[in-house]
Design goal:
Helix content: 40-55%
Shape: elongated
Structural class: alpha+beta
Bound molecules: adenosine-5'-diphosphate
Radius of gyration: 41 Å
Largest sheet: 7 strands, mixed
């Protein structure tokens, strides 16, 4: 392989090169012959003319490719000219692929290039010329090189279609592109088999014996904090628009850190401090090409959602060091052809030392092609993209044996001695040292903070175990105790325990986020199911405060989505519970609307949050917001909201429980999901908290009208039709509130309800218990409903093998029934669960012998007693309906109860005394009194016992009296405890 270059200052010099090219072509045997040219300042016609002469020079195998507006450093300061680079190979194949392409069709062009690459068996390198920076070049490169990542792609683009305000500093001389006029812009092209104003030209180098070395040198390194860019949609020019950092216009960051204002000198004032982004282990520098009046910055390079930007800086030495290191490795490689692509920013930065960036390379490849265009294109082993401030060296070689020759190359150390070093170098050395000291200090602080987070997270874990034990035990009390006082206490323990658990979970989440251990796990989920769970979490709290919960869910949103359901629910729950907490009257509204855009750049946002890099092609952007009519937030407090552990208006809110962690977690979770919290609030009127989020679309069918469904399924009142004390059912749902709801709905049926939070747990329970009916939630993590059902059927020791299994689903779309039947369910019940439907279903599936249908009378009893306090209605041993009937009105019943209650102690003692003395006469009178007073209050069993003893007393049947009095007294005295709430009412 040989390489020969011709540096031509003008058209004439270029024409003069042609005979020389001819003679080389005829003298040297070759497999392939290629001319690449890099020109600046020629018109289309001039370029066409030269190329025609090359084509007509009598060597049909000669391939030609080229690009314009690459400033040819070696021709400076003339500013116009052409570098003609001739390559002849011994064995390697070369192919030039011309790919016209307009914005939006990059994928098609990439597919065409990939097809050509696939046709070669040993692709070693690709040189790429792009024209029109409105094209999505990064996407093109990534798609085209799929499967050929081992071959480096390198090259450059024209500046065509970039904002012409741009100024490029060349050494001491400033070239204002604007001044060169529209012609300049119009004469930009890439050249393949024809002139291309829009598209790509690729040169493929392929050959079994061809070897390649690709070096990317930078020299800039990151400094200072990480900024989270707020990205706009893919711009029409360049690849990225950064609208802001931290809610402020992006350009302000230059004011803050460099004292630079967005005037026409912006770019030249900041180019020593490019932004830098770390992607897949390599650093990519970014310098904006334009700044709009609203302070947005435009970049040619790509910034992916979720990527952080930092400032970077470098000293002369470091920049040179990087390219010299590349030189040294290139020396060992000994290329036969060498390409250098380097950024004007380096030349600008190194000024009089800039020549050292290529001088050394001349010693190993005197005829190397050196260019710099609008940017450096580089993609290798799945990394790279559009680069800036970069130095690329690509060497090709066909011969095998390499004799290491001795080269005399400049050493960077030489530069450091025996001269007055530039102030900027000394400043940057100073800055670097201070930065590293600060970094050490920050690292120490971070270590301490990490230790704190680890401690917190450890503690919360440890605390959760005993809390769960306490709650579990408490649950047993709630199920098994019949004593009202105990039940009241247990209820208090449950509520405080759940509260504590919530706080501990928040602390755990927070420390996980701090430690960077929180990850987003997107899954398939049903929107209606999420709404159901959210509604269930919030409606009771809201109702207890007399607040309405409104849903405003757009019916056109697709029903099955892809995203982190758990975290999404957590975020919205936080907002909803806050809204309820900080609202005294009025309503809380959850609103979810689709935003017009679908797919496109949004998909990248979603993709970026998925760890395994898989997500559906179709995406939707939703606007989720929670509005309340609460206390609102004062403008001066708004800023405080984003600080950790901060609560605003502490004094006013002192009675509202909270830790100030909720919004922080919300904010961090949203950031992990590529979103951001917004807050709008009018003090005294209410607040709106919300965010926009991108989710995948798995089923396009709209969710339909949800709002009405929840209104109808208000969990408030219902009439129980039957009881089934001996029936036992299992309900499986991964959301615990849903379990609570069903348990509460069934309380009056006295059905024994077991619950499980996962399919795994359910499998354990069916081995241990025989259930009459099983409800299985459809979508659960790890093991979904159908899967759990399948596994249940496979279990050999399933005690509930015969139990009908009903699917619980939020998916109410038509045709669902057939689907569930096919999966082996006997029926399905939609969420939100309607109490009547639930009861009807249980009535049908619980074995009839276990069901006691309540007569109209029973039913009426329940209706009538509705006004009585719950403890009395549920008080064991008292038939409250009977009592109420006997006393006619609640008030009368209350009075009778009170007087009954007051004399229990005294009366019981009297009965006991007469009994012990054997005074049957008085004994009989007393039990006679008890018989009727007990009947009046509805203590029917006690009344019957007293009646039997009265009879025995009359008959002086001592045996009956002796064997039954103790029980009578015990039951009578037990009422002292059971009726004790009566004192609270009257007192
Ligand atoms: P907390 O646990 O204190 O509620 P958060 O982080 O959830 O903590 O909220 C922080 C503070 O923001 C609250 O203390 C409260 O002052 C304010 N805040 C949150 N939501 C609302 C709302 N809907 N209306 C008014 N103030 C709110």
């Amino acid at each position: 392989m040989i390489q020969k270059k011709f540096l031509c200052k003008d058209l004439k010099a270029a024409e003069d090169a042609i005979p020389q090219i001819k003679s080389i072509l005829s003298e040297k045997e070759h497999k392939s012959a290629l001319i690449t040219f890099y020109e600046v300042g020629f018109s289309f016609e001039e370029v066409e003319g030269i190329v025609k002469q090359m084509r007509d020079c009598g060597f049909p195998e000669l391939l030609i490719a080229g690009i314009s507006l690459t400033v040819i450093a070696e021709l400076m300061p003339e500013g116009t000219g052409m570098l003609i680079n001739l390559i002849l190979t011994d064995e390697a194949d070369i192919e030039v692929v011309t790919l016209p392409c307009i914005p939006g069709e990059e994928d098609k062009a990439a597919a065409r290039l990939k097809e050509r690459l696939d046709a070669h068996s040993h692709v070693r390198a690709v040189e790429l010329f792009g024209s029109n920076m409105s094209l999505n070049t990064t996407r093109f490169m990534e798609r085209a090189m799929e499967g050929h990542e081992d071959a480096p792609l390198f090259g450059t683009s024209t500046i065509r279609n970039l904002p012409t305000k741009l100024s490029v500093e060349e050494g001491e001389q400033v070239v204002e592109l604007e001044q060169m006029g529209q012609d300049f812009e119009d004469n930009q092209l890439a050249y393949g088999d024809r002139l291309l104003r829009d598209g790509f030209v690729a040169v493929i180098f392929a050959g079994k014996k061809l070897k390649v070395l690709a070096n990317y040198a930078l020299g800039w390194s990151p400094i200072g904090r990480r900024f989270t860019p707020e990205l706009g949609a893919h711009p029409a020019r360049g690849e990225t628009v950064v609208k802001g950092f931290n809610g402020r216009p992006a350009v302000d960051v230059y004011k803050d850190y460099l004292g630079v204002y967005p005037d026409s000198y912006l770019i030249s004032n900041i180019c020593e401090f490019p932004f830098i982004v770390d992607r897949a282990g390599i650093s990519i520098c970014l310098i904006p090409i334009d700044c709009t009046p609203d302070g947005s910055l435009y970049f040619m390079m790509t910034v992916r959602p979720g990527e952080k930007l930092r400032f970077s800086f470098a000293s002369h030495d470091e920049v040179l060091d990087a390219s010299l290191r590349s030189l040294h490795s290139m020396e060992r490689f000994q290329p036969e052809a060498l390409f250098l692509t380097l950024c004007g920013n380096r030349i600008n930065f190194l000024k009089e030392d800039a020549h050292m960036e290529w001088d050394g390379f001349r010693t190993i490849g005197p005829d190397h092609a050196l260019m710099h265009g609008a940017c450096e294109l580089f993609y290798h082993k799945g990394r790279g993209g559009i680069l800036n401030s970069a130095h690329l060296a690509i060497g090709l070689r066909e011969k095998d044996d390499v004799n290491m020759a001795e080269y005399n190359h400049p050493d960077i150390e030489d530069l450091r001695h025996g001269r007055t070093m530039p102030l900027s170098d000394r400043m940057s050395a100073f800055l670097r040292k201070i930065t590293s000291e600060l970094q050490d200090m920050a690292a120490e602080a971070r270590d301490a903070n990490n230790a704190k987070s680890a401690f917190l997270s450890h503690m919360s874990h440890e605390i959760r175990t005993p809390i769960n034990a306490i709650l579990g035990m408490d649950e047993m009390i709630l199920r098994e105790s019949s004593e009202t006082d105990i039940l009241d206490y247990a209820e208090d323990i449950r509520s405080a325990g759940n509260n504590l658990l919530g706080i501990v979970n928040d602390v755990l989440d927070f420390s996980k986020i701090e430690a960077g251990k929180m990850s987003i796990i997107p899954v398939e989920y049903e929107l209606s199911s999420v709404i159901n769970d959210l509604y269930n979490v919030v409606w009771l709290r809201a109702r207890n405060k007399g607040l309405a919960v409104n849903l405003d869910i757009d019916p056109s949103i697709p029903s099955v989505l892809f995203g982190d359901e758990t975290r999404l629910k957590q975020v919205i729950t936080n907002l909803l519970t806050n809204a309820v907490k900080y609202t005294e009257k009025g309503k809380v509204t959850l609103c979810i609307k689709p935003l017009a855009k679908r797919g496109g750049a949004d998909r990248d946002i979603l993709l970026n949050t998925c760890q395994d890099g898989q997500c559906p092609e179709d995406t939707i952007r939703l606007k989720v917001s929670v509005k309340d009519t609460g206390i609102g937030i004062r403008p001066e407090d708004m800023e405080k909201l984003s600080e950790e552990y901060q609560r605003v208006e502490e004094k006013r809110n002192r009675t509202i429980e909270g830790t100030g962690l909720g919004l922080n977690i919300t904010r961090e979770l949203l950031e992990l999901m590529g979103s951001r919290l917004f807050v709008e609030s009018v003090y005294g009127e209410g607040s709106e908290f919300g965010f926009e989020i991108v989710q995948g679309v798995l089923r396009d069918e709209p969710v339909g009208e949800l709002n009405g469904r929840f209104r109808k399924a208000d969990h408030g009142k219902y009439r129980v039709r039957f009881t089934a004390e001996d029936a036992r059912i299992l309900v499986v749902d991964d959301t615990s509130v849903n379990l609570d709801v069903i348990r509460n709905l069934l309380k009056k049926t006295r059905i024994n309800v077991d619950t499980a939070a996962s399919g795994e747990e359910a499998l354990g329970l069916v081995r241990a218990n025989s259930y009459d009916v099983i409800f299985l939630d459809h979508l659960m993590p790890h093991m979904d409903g159908p899967e759990t059902l399948r596994r249940m059927k496979e279990l050999k020791d399933n005690l509930s093998a015969g139990a009908p299994v009903i699917s619980l689903t939020a998916n109410a779309v038509s045709g669902a029934r057939d689907e569930y039947m096919k999966a082996g369910f006997v029926d399905y019940l939609t969420k939100p669960v309607n109490s009547k439907k639930l009861e009807d279903m249980l009535f049908n599936y619980i074995p009839p012998e276990k069901i006691r249908t309540l007569s109209d009378n029973d039913d009426k009893n329940l209706e009538e007693t509705a006004m009585l306090p719950a403890w009395l209605r549920e008080c064991e041993g008292i038939d409250a309906a009977e009592g109420l009937r006997n006393c006619s009105t609640e008030e009368a019943y209350q009075i009778v109860l009170e007087s009954f209650y007051e004399v229990i102690g005294e009366n019981a003692e009297e009965i006991e005394n007469y009994y012990e003395r054997g005074d049957w006469e008085n004994y009989t009178i007393k039990v006679h009194g008890l018989k009727s007073s007990a009947k009046t209050i509805g203590a029917l069993d006690l009344s019957e016992q007293a009646a039997a003893l009265e009879k025995a007393g009359l008959e002086a049947d001592e045996e009956v009296i002796r064997s039954n009095t103790e029980k009578l007294l015990a039951d009578y005295r037990a009422l002292l405890e059971k009726l004790s709430p009566i004192t609270r009412i009257s007192g």
